[in-house]
């Protein structure tokens, strides 16, 4: 909520306490989308000219000095944070966003230049530090879009650190991403489900505004990583030895763990809705069976979980992400090469039959309870 809206609500509450007004405060008129687009474009245009000036005065002079570039980037981030804290219109917010993103890129690039690009890029500690840096920015800078982008940056840094730790002496082996991302997918799913279940308490404690964009970033990264794990395949892994042959098992590990998260969320929802034991057993049994059939396509299982979380939160963006993940996950799973065409067709057909049977049973159960 902006500072202007907070001030208006506080003034309305003071007037209501004096008995001078009654009812709810009048709705705040929204700026038309065309005006918002123009103001946002003005902010980015101003940031572009500002950065041209900065490149012409500082970057060219310090192009061989990584420390100076990093310090300049940190100064740009501080300027953007100051603009966010002071508040302002759409143009000021977009100007601050562009300056902050450019400052982050300059700070990271300058640091890698100062320490040696190749050595730093292959260091898990650097990626972990990048994740902490982005997480700190997401926590300190009070802007929703900035927090969302920094949250994504934190997850990317964490993914790089996990991959390098697992790859060891073979950082160029990108096939191991199926394992590094495969472990992060259930972690992200668990965090998104935990945020959804605790959302009411977070609102009561005043933490929702900070954590909601981070939850958006977590769900977005989780679904994207699940799609990568689903689409990557290694059909000739057995030619490279037993270690490489274990790579396709990452699909099963990620899909199985996300199925556990899906079942846990469904159980919590059944208890919240006070459903009977028979209904709880049927829902859990159907979801576990569906997850077992689609375990090799973790993007589909993660999309189903995202759809459930979206319905719980009444969130259209989360619902759109869930539907897109399910659709793309089905396509990528069917076109991947780690299973035969017959096996994939059989699992997809069985999953479809299971869903139709579950729908029929739920409708019949609802009609019986209504009667």
From TrEMBL:
Q: Does the keyword Transmembrane helix apply?
A: yes
Q: Where is the DUF4401 domain?
A: 32-363
The reply to whether S-adenosyl-L-methionine figures as a keyword in the UniProt entry is no
Give the keywords, sorted: Membrane, Transmembrane, Transmembrane helix
Give TM segment ranges: 38-61, 67-85, 92-112, 124-141, 148-168, 174-198, 210-229, 249-270, 282-310, 316-334, 341-362
In Swiss-Prot or TrEMBL terms, this protein is called: DUF4401 domain-containing protein
């Amino acid at each position: 909520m902006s500072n202007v809206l907070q001030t208006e609500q506080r003034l309305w509450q003071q007037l209501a306490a004096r008995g001078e007004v009654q009812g709810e405060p009048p709705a705040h008129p929204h700026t038309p989308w065309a005006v918002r687009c123009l103001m946002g474009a003005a902010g980015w245009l101003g940031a572009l000219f500002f950065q041209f000036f900065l490149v012409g005065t500082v970057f060219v002079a310090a192009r061989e000095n990584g420390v100076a570039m990093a310090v300049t980037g940190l100064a740009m981030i501080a300027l953007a944070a100051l603009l966010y804290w002071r508040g302002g219109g759409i143009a000021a917010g977009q100007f601050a966003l562009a300056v902050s993103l450019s400052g982050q890129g300059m700070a990271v690039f300058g640091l890698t230049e100062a320490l040696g690009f190749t050595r730093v890029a292959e260091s898990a500690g650097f990626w972990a530090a990048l994740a902490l840096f982005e997480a700190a920015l997401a926590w300190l800078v009070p802007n929703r879009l900035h927090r969302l982008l920094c949250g994504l940056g934190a997850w990317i840094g964490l993914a790089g650190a996990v991959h390098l730790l697992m790859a060891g002496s073979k950082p160029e082996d990108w096939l191991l991403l199926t394992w590094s991302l495969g472990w992060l997918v259930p972690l992200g799913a668990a965090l998104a489900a935990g945020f959804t279940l605790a959302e009411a308490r977070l609102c009561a404690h005043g933490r929702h505004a900070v954590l909601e964009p981070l939850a958006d970033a977590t769900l977005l990264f989780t679904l994207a990583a699940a799609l990568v794990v689903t689409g990557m395949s290694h059909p000739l892994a057995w030619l490279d030895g037993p270690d490489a042959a274990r790579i396709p098992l990452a699909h099963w590990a990620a899909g199985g763990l996300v199925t556990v998260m899906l079942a846990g969320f469904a159980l919590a929802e059944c208890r919240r809705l006070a459903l009977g034991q028979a209904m709880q057993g049927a829902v859990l049994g159907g979801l576990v069976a569906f997850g077992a059939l689609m375990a090799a396509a973790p993007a589909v299982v993660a999309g189903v979980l995202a759809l459930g979380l979206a319905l719980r939160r009444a969130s259209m963006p989360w619902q759109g992400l869930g539907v897109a993940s399910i659709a793309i996950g089905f396509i990528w799973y069917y076109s991947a090469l780690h299973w035969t065409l017959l096996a994939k067709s059989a699992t997809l057909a069985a999953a479809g039959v299971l869903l139709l049977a579950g729908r029929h049973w739920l409708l019949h159960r609802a009609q019986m309870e209504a009667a």
